[in-house]
Amino acid sequence: MIIKILLLAVVFALAVSALRIKKEVHSGAIKKIGFILLLFGGILAILEPDLVTYVANAVGVGRGTDLVFYIFAVAFLFQIINSYEGHKRNDEKITELVRKIALMEACEHYKKKDTQLNTVDNNSN
Asked: Which of 23, 54, 104, 111 is the most exposed place for a label (fewest CB within 10 A)?
C-alpha cells in the first residue's frame, strides 16, 4: 500500500510539472489529450494492477508488465520525434534571425559608407 501512495505522489508531481511546462510551450490538443490519457492510464495501473493484466490479455499480450513496457516504448518514440521537430523549428528560427541580423548590419555598414562619401563630397565642393 505504501508503494501505491509513493507512486501516485510521483505521478501527481510529474503531472503538475509537465502541465506547467506545457503552458509555456506551444503544444497541440492531441498531444495534451495523449498526455492526459497516459497519466490516467498510469494512475489506473497503480491502483488496479490486475486490470492491466486483463487488458493485456484482451489485446493479445501475455503480461500486463509487457503491455506497460510497449506503451511506454511508443510514448518514448513519440517524444523523440516531437523533440526532433522542436529542435528543427528552433534551428529554422535561428537561421532566419541570423539572416535578418546580417542584412541589418549590411544596411548599417552601407549607410555609414554613404554618409562618409557624402561628407567627403561636401568637403570637396
From this structure: 23
Per-residue pLDDT of 74-113, as tens digits, reads 989 988 998 898 899 999 999 999 999 999 988 887 777 7
Q: What are the CA-CA distances from residue 100 to residues 52, 93, 105, 106, 107 (Å)?
A: 54, 11, 9, 10, 11
Looking at this protein, which amino acid is placed at residue 72? F
State pLDDT tens for residues 5-60.
999 999 888 888 777 765 555 566 777 787 788 888 888 888 988 999 999 999 99
| Under 8 Å between Cβ of 58 and 70 | no
Measured in whole angstroms, how far is the alpha carbon of residue 94 from the centre of its chain? 17
What's the CA gap between 8 and 6, in Å, rounded?
A: 5
| Chain length of the chain | 125
